[in-house]
Design a protein that fits this description.
The protein is α/β, with parallel strands linked by helices and 371 residues long. Helix content is 35%, strand content 26%. The strands form 4 sheets. It has a 7-stranded mixed beta sheet, sandwiched between helices. A 7-stranded mixed beta sheet has the order 12-11-7-10-9-8-18. It has a two-stranded antiparallel sheet with strand order 13-14. The chain starts with 7 loop residues before the first strand and ends with a helix. Bound molecules: nicotinamide-adenine-dinucleotide. The site of nicotinamide-adenine-dinucleotide has 25 residues, from helix 1.
Length: 371
C-alpha cells in the first residue's frame, strides 16, 4: 500500500506549558514542515519559538491562522480562552486539536460545537489519558465484552492541591474553576468512554470547600453519582485539595468497573515508582519546597527522560499529526464528546450547588435559570 502523507503547517495558539510540549513534539514529526505560534505574552512566545525552532511568532492568533502555510491548529490557551481561536479556525476550515475542556461555560461550549459542526471541520479534544496504555487496554476489554454488561463503575481521582492553586491563580473567574470542570473531566471522560453505549439520565452530587475555600474561594472536591438509562451507575470522587507534601505531584486515579460477567480494576495511582531525595523535586506543576518524596509518572501528560517527553501526550500529539497527515482513525475525543463532558461536569457542579438531583442532559437555559 502506498501512503501519500499530507505535509503539515502547524499553528499553535497559546504557547504555555502544553503549547510548548505540543510544539517540541511537532518539531520532530516527519510531516511537519512549518510551525507558527500565537502567544499573547511576547517574552513567552520568543522562548517557545526558540525551543521549538518555530518559523513564525505573533501575539495575534488571527494573523497566525490567516497565514497560507497553516493547515492544522493546536488550541492550547487557558481553559476559558479556547472559544475565539476555535471559532476562527472553524471558519477557515482548519483541523484542530483543542485542549480540554472545550470551554468552561456551557453556552459557549454549545456555540463552539455548533461552529465546528457547521464548518464540518475535523476537531478533536485533548483527553490525553485515552493514550495511556492501561486505559486503552481497559477500553478494548470493555468494548469486546469481557465484563458482560457493565452495571457499576467507580472512580477515585486524588490530586495535589498545587494544581488547584495554579488554576485559581491564573483565573479571573474562580467560580468557573472547579475540580470537575478542570481536572475531574479526565476521569469522567475515561469512564464515559468505557461506557459509551450508555446514556446518562440523572446526576446527584455534593462538594466540600474547607481547605481551598477560605483562601481561594475554591472547591476542594466533589462526589457524584450518575445514573444511566439502563439502570447502570457510575460513582466518582475527585479531590484536588491534597496537601502539597502529598507524593503524587499531580494525578492519582483508580477505576473499578463491574459487569454481569466480570470486573476490571485499574490502578493508576503511581505508587509503584517512588523517589525520595534531600533535593527538591520539580516534576509536574510548580515544585513545592516541602516535597521530597514523589510518586513518579503522576504528571498526566508524561515524563521527561533523556531530554524528551515520554508518555500519553507524546502519543496523543503524534497520533493526531498522523490523523491530519494520513487521515488514519484515532481514539481522540470528538468535539461532540468534549461538549458532552463539559455538560456533565457542569451538571455535577449544579447538583452540588443546588443540593438536588439533576436530570440529564442540561442546557445553557437550565444553568441560567439556576442562577
Ligand atoms: N491534556 C492534559 O493532560 C493537560 C494538562 C495540562 C493542561 N491541559 C490543558 O491545556 C490548556 C493550556 O494549559 P497550560 O497548562 O499550558 O496553561 P498555560 O497557562 O501554561 O498556557 C496558556 C497560554 O495561553 C496563552 N494565551 C491565552 N490567551 C491567548 C490568546 N488569545 N492568544 C494567544 N495566546 C494566548 C497564555 O498567555 C499562556 O501562555 C488548558 O486548557 C489546560 O486545561 C491539558
Amino acid at each position: 500500500m502506498k501512503k501519500k502523507p499530507k505535509r503539515i503547517g502547524l499553528a499553535i495558539v497559546g504557547a504555555g506549558r502544553v503549547g510548548l510540549i505540543r510544539g517540541e513534539l511537532a518539531a520532530r514529526h516527519p510531516e511537519v514542515d512549518w510551525i507558527g505560534l500565537a502567544e499573547i505574552n511576547p517574552e513567552r512566545g520568543e522562548i517557545v519559538r526558540e525551543k521549538c525552532g518555530a518559523d513564525f511568532v505573533t501575539t495575534n492568533f488571527r494573523e497566525l491562522l490567516s497565514r497560507p502555510e497553516v493547515n492544522a491548529v493546536v488550541v492550547s490557551t487557558d481553559e476559558h480562552l479556547h472559544v475565539d481561536p476555535v471559532v476562527f479556525a472553524s471558519e477557515r476550515k482548519l483541523p484542530m486539536l483543542i485542549e480540554k475542556p472545550l470551554a468552561t461555560d456551557l453556552a459557549e461550549s454549545a456555540s463552539t460545537l455548533a461552529a465546528i459542526e457547521k464548518s464540518g471541520v475535523d476537531a478533536v479534544i485533548g483527553y490525553t489519558q485515552r493514550f495511556r496504555r492501561r486505559w486503552l487496554v481497559a477500553k478494548e476489554k470493555v468494548k469486546s465484552g469481557a465484563l458482560g454488561e457493565v452495571t457499576m463503575v467507580t472512580s477515585r481521582a486524588f490530586m495535589n492541591r498545587l494544581v488547584a492553586i495554579d488554576n485559581y491563580k491564573r483565573s479571573d473567574n474562580r467560580a468557573e474553576v472547579t475540580p470537575m470542570v478542570i481536572s475531574g473531566t479526565h476521569a469522567l471522560d475515561i469512564v464515559m468512554w468505557l461506557m459509551e453505549a450508555k446514556k446518562p439520565v440523572e446526576v446527584y452530587a455534593r462538594s466540600v470547600n474547607k481547605a481551598l475555600g477560605p483562601t481561594w474561594q475554591g472547591v476542594d472536591g466533589t462526589g457524584y453519582t450518575i445514573t444511566f438509562d439502563d439502570g447502570a451507575i457510575y460513582h466518582g470522587v475527585i479531590s484536588w485539595a491534597l496537601p502539597e507534601i502529598w507524593p503524587g505531584a499531580v494525578y492519582s486515579l483508580e477505576i473499578g468497573a463491574v459487569g454481569t460477567e466480570g470486573v476490571l480494576t485499574i490502578d493508576d495511582t503511581h505508587r509503584d515508582i517512588v523517589l525520595a531525595t534531600n533535593l527538591i523535586q520539580a516534576e509536574g506543576y510548580s515544585p513545592d519546597k516541602r516535597r521530597h518524596v514523589d510518586f513518579l509518572t503522576s504528571y498526566p501528560v508524561g515524563d521527561m527522560a533523556l531530554g524528551e517527553l515520554r508518555g500519553p501526550m507524546r502519543e496523543e500529539t503524534n497520533s493526531w499529526l498522523n490523523r491530519v497527515s494520513l487521515g488514519v482513525p484515532t481514539q481522540h475525543a470528538t468535539a461532540r464528546e468534549g461538549h458532552n463532558r463539559l455538560m456533565l461536569t457542569k451538571a455535577i457542579d449544579l447538583s452540588a450547588k443546588l443540593k438536588r438531583p439533576i436530570k440529564l442532559p442540561i442546557t445553557p437555559d437550565d444553568m441560567k435559570q439556576a442562577g
